[in-house]
Design brief:
about 220 residues, mainly beta, 17 strands
């Protein structure tokens, strides 16, 4: 947006008749030589109309309307970051009050993105019928998502064992991004019992531990 350079020396910039102006360093910059004012894109939502007013000492307020168009990123894909070159996540036992089960957390990159797609994220769905929300929105055991600070990746938390389809949609993007997330079945720990005739802990069905306990009895006697 261009205007006379004198205006840019002393002014207030207001969007949609807000009672407070914008912070100069954080939300807009000025190039006095070129006579331009640059507003930060975080102020706008694609497809919406905005009224921008520029006020300067000694000058009449100049106001105009614009519609912000979104620049869509192209060639994006989802990449599931399995640990150590594996093709699945190991699940671990978690307890949420009276609920206990096996879960895993997955890290997913939006490959090729500079943060634009997740900035306008509208929905996160697991297996076509389970809409996910941010952590804490639903019950503590519910699957959830968290977006990274740079908006280039996200974490899907509390995923149950199985093969799942993740679907992401964002405002302005016609096509959704999808990926498969595989979580291995949990393995229950052996049942802890006590060997007959001693107080040493043993494992039911473990012959090696049974023999060890018997030897311990022998030497104690």
């Amino acid at each position: 947006m261009k205007m006379h350079s004198i205006w840019l020396l002393s002014k207030n910039v207001v969007i949609n008749d807000s009672w407070t102006g914008l912070a100069k360093k954080d939300k807009y910059t000025v190039d006095v030589e070129k006579g331009t004012l640059t507003l930060d894109q975080s102020l706008f939502t694609p497809g919406e109309e905005y009224k921008i007013a520029v006020e300067a000492d000694g000058y009449q307020m100049n106001a105009f309307k614009i519609t912000y168009d979104q620049l869509l990123e192209e060639g994006l894909t989802l990449t599931v970051k399995y640990p150590d070159g594996k093709n699945e996540y190991a699940s671990d036992k978690r307890t949420f009050g009276k609920i206990q089960g096996y879960y895993a957390d997955a890290e997913v990159d939006v490959t090729g993105s500079e943060g634009g797609f997740l900035k306008y994220l509208t929905s996160v769905v697991l297996d076509e019928d389970d809409t996910l929300y941010t952590k804490g929105y639903e019950g503590s055991d519910a699957a959830y998502y968290e977006i990274s600070a740079d908006k280039k990746s996200l974490t899907i938390g509390n995923i149950k064992p199985g093969t799942h389809t993740l679907t992401l949609r964002a405002k302005g993007y016609v096509d959704a991004l999808t990926a498969q997330i595989v979580v291995a079945e949990g393995v229950d720990e052996p049942e802890v019992t006590f060997c007959s005739g001693c107080k040493e802990p043993g494992v039911q069905g473990s012959w090696l531990l049974y023999v060890s306990c018997q030897l311990l009895h022998y030497f104690r006697e």
